[in-house]
Task: inverse folding
């Protein structure tokens, strides 16, 4: 049989690059980039290349399984899909009949069905479709949405820029725009662009920058405000933009920035005042071909929303918003180009403490169902009642704050979570705690229409299609939900008039010229019309908060003693948060996560490179191996994600540690995003 | 074009992402912990003036190739386009080439017991495709082509591309831009060897 070339879309991370699978006799020979993808332009990263390992993992879950011992005892009995579906349908039907549909909680990690999961929860009547957004980009998305309204994600025009001002983003290794951004940044740098990266650690992005500027955690916003101070003081701003396109006058901008002197910023951030001036001038001089980039390093803090907001304001100050080489954006939802086929169920009116935690009024208004760190503490404190937890493509014990302790404890408690269904392709730390496991396909065996915010500023629609048949009895997630909806009751079934996943996608793809046939052949349809961004008023003053971007110092940092450190986390270029440690071609490159520590800190605690030591936070301790390096801020230690598995198959198990065991669920009180990079710890030699 | 095919690696653009290495693994299925292509990392400096560089490392396709000399059965030869190729039908698995290679670019395949290394993706080239590492590189840091090709020739003319070990050079066809002395010192053999690095 000849080698087939089947276009599809990657999902080994959330960048969703177009790919072409070379397949022979049902086996994937190679995955290559699809040149038609406007973002990745035919390139694939290491993770994309290694996705073959994911599909071929010999320890995949192949059949529905029912728990027969205590939770997490590892005792399972294989059952049929019929039995599994009728068991779930009976339970869920009861919740609807008894008028408590909100006791179904659907928790997902990565949902690229782009609306299908929500179709199910909406039809069911539960608002509790909960994701990991609050653990990821919520503070940033809230700030973008609040400032410009049109979208919640930026795609700075890196390819055409002359100045990349990066606050804590590691887009050379991770980030939703990873491949598209790194190739454009490299192009810009070849054309003479200057790149500055603020980070506590020399990430590969920092290493590729013209300057790496170590910064004290949580002070990015202060530095950005001080840069604004310099720009206004030295009259380098775009006055017309400020007066005409923002909701404040130049006088108001000046007045607000007056107090944020570079000297103040230096005291808290450690960045020299003159360096702040120099960068502010360089950025302003390059404008409008000047853009900020920012992500986790800047916003995964208690004050993350304001950090991000202050950073975005720099683009407004120099008038680079929407300009070539400046800070641009496009909507990223594939449904804008290709609306899902109806009939769509109404949105449930009910709200719960899980979907709309009352402590986060601004987040609930701007971005409902996105505060994630509250989920397990709230269930534990019985602030929300759960009957059935339906977990899809999520590994909470690995990826939630205090995951290995708090999240796992809640998941093991049959009073708090009476029934737990896990849909996954792998026996994850989440699957371990299930009562019932449904075998999921990997992305190489499933259907989706997908897209991301375009770096070419053109809408596009990509197809994810099965390139190999699913092994065993693994089902496409849409097949699972279609079957389940039809089995629950007729009212639910009316929203799922589809035979199967392929039928749904065929209907959906009719929104694209040429329909499914075109997409199956080409992989991606690109709208030839360029996206014309509306010119919204940039909101420098937020009515809802009654204020402008501010520096909110992190008190536990200000009170730190000399022998205390801030624990931060990061991602490697060859791994994602908790789903790649089973992929042998990646784990052979990075298969451990020792703790990065500066030589001064190591010397103070008599820690030598490669030696074990203990990190202490309250009652929690974690034994780690030291990686002594000059490439980290002396007041910071850093441990990568991706390791510390006690399940997920023999390739993953027993490698490294999980830093989340030390990190508590602490959120930005404004936006609700998790503060991953603020945990104060002490160190102890073994 | 009669000239050699060369690989030009721009270290100023390389982001160290390992896409090249894993693409190579997928293409050729080198056994675990054996590499035809591997990205090395070199770090130097004192906080906060720390630099890190990434160096994609593979068979250097030497014009004066020690492996060709070392092979007792003449299984390694150079093609007319310069690529150094192991003929697996002739290879007897003596392993002499493995120790002869100054770059550690050759490994013994534990399954076939034959010597193996980068062949500039002869199979892909015969289908008109670029080598796997070249085609996937997100930053286009790796270029491949005939030295007479105008784009390649122009890059070579800049005089900024050097070889891995210029002092005791085996005249590689893999050339690097931005490979300074510190980085050269940090480079190690691609495949570890008993008693080696």
Result:
């Amino acid at each position: 049989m000849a080698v087939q070339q089947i276009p599809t879309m990657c999902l080994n991370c959330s960048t969703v690059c177009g790919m072409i699978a070379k397949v022979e006799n049902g086996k994937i020979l190679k995955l290559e980039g699809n040149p038609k993808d406007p973002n990745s332009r035919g390139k694939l990263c290491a993770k994309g290349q290694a996705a073959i390992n994911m599909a071929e993992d010999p320890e995949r879950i192949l059949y529905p399984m029912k728990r027969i011992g205590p939770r997490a005892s590892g005792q399972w009995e294989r059952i049929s899909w019929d039995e599994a579906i009728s068991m779930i349908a009976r339970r869920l039907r009861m919740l609807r009949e008894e008028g408590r549909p909100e006791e179904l909680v659907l928790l997902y990690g990565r949902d690229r069905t782009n609306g299908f999961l929500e179709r199910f929860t909406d039809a069911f009547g539960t608002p509790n479709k909960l994701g990991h957004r609050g653990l990821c980009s919520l503070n940033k998305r809230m700030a973008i949405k609040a400032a410009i309204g049109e979208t919640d994600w930026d795609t700075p025009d890196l390819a055409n820029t002359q100045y990349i001002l990066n606050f804590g983003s590691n887009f050379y290794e991770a980030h939703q725009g990873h491949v598209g951004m790194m190739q454009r940044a490299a192009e810009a740098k070849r054309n003479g662009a200057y790149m500055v990266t603020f980070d506590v650690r020399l990430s590969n992005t920092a290493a590729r920058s013209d300057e790496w500027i170590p910064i004290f955690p949580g002070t990015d916003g202060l530095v950005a405000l001080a840069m604004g101070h310099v720009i206004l003081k030295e009259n380098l701003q775009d006055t017309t933009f400020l007066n005409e396109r923002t909701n404040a006058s130049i006088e108001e901008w000046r007045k607000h920035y007056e107090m944020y002197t570079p000297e103040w910023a230096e005291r808290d951030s450690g960045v020299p005042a003159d360096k702040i001036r120099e960068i502010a001038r360089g950025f302003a001089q390059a404008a409008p071909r000047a853009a900020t980039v920012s992500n986790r390093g800047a916003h995964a803090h208690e004050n993350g929303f304001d950090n991000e907001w202050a950073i975005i304001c720099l683009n407004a100050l120099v008038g680079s918003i929407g300009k070539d080489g400046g800070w641009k954006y496009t909507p990223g939802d594939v449904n804008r180009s290709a609306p899902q086929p109806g009939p769509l169920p109404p949105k449930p009116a009910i709200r719960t403490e899980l979907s709309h935690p009352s402590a986060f009024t601004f987040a609930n208004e701007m971005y409902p169902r996105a505060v994630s760190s509250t989920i397990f503490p709230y269930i534990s404190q019985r602030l929300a009642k759960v009957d059935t937890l339906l977990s899809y493509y999520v590994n909470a014990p690995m990826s939630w704050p205090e995951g290995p302790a708090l999240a796992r404890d809640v998941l093991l408690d049959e009073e708090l979570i009476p029934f737990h269904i896990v849909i996954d392709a792998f026996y994850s730390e989440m699957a371990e705690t299930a009562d019932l496991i449904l075998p999921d396909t990997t992305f190489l065996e499933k259907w989706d229409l997908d897209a991301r915010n375009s770096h070419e500023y053109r809408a596009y629609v990509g197809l994810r299609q099965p390139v190999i048949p699913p092994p065993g009895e693994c089902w496409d997630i849409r097949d699972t939900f279609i079957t389940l909806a039809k089995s629950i009751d007729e009212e639910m079934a009316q929203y799922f008039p589809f035979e199967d996943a392929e039928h749904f996608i065929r209907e959906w793809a009719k929104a694209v010229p040429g329909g499914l046939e075109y997409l199956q052949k080409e992989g991606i349809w690109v709208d030839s019309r360029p996206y014309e961004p509306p010119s919204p008023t940039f909101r420098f003053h937020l009515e809802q908060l009654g204020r402008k971007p501010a520096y909110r110092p992190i008190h536990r940092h200000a009170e730190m003693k000399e022998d205390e450190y801030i624990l931060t986390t990061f991602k490697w270029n060859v791994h994602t948060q908790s789903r790649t440690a089973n992929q042998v071609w990646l784990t052979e490159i990075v298969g451990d996560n020792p703790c990065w520590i500066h030589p001064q800190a190591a010397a103070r605690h008599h820690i030598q490179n490669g030696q074990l030591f203990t990190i202490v936070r309250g009652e929690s301790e974690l034994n780690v191996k030291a990686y002594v390096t000059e490439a980290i801020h002396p007041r910071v230690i850093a441990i990568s994600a991706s390791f510390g598995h006690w399940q997920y198959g023999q390739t993953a198990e027993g490698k490294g540690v999980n830093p989340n065991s030390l990190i508590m669920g602490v959120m930005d009180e404004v936006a609700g995003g998790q503060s991953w990079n603020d945990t104060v710890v002490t160190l102890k030699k073994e | 074009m009669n000239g050699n095919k060369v690989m030009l690696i721009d270290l100023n653009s390389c982001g160290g992402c390992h896409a090249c290495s894993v693409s190579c693994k997928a293409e050729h299925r080198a056994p675990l912990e054996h590499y035809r292509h591997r990205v090395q990392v070199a770090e130097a400096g004192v906080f906060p003036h720390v630099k890190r560089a990434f160096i994609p490392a593979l068979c250097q396709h030497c014009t004066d190739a020690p492996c060709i000399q070392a092979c007792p059965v003449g299984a390694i030869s150079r093609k007319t386009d310069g690529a150094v190729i192991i003929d697996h039908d002739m290879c007897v698995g003596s392993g002499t080439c493995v120790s002869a290679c100054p770059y550690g670019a050759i490994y013994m395949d534990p399954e076939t017991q034959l010597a193996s290394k980068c062949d500039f993706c002869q199979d892909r080239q015969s289908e008109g495709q670029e080598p796997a590492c070249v085609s996937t590189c997100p930053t286009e840091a790796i270029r491949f082509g005939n030295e007479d090709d105008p784009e390649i020739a122009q890059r070579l003319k800049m005089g900024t591309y050097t070889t891995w070990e210029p002092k005791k050079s085996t005249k590689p066809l893999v050339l690097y831009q931005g490979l300074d002395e510190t980085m050269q010192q940090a480079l190690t053999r691609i495949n570890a060897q008993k008693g080696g690095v």
Notes: The radius of gyration of chain B is 16 Å. The longest helix of chain B spans residues 19-28.
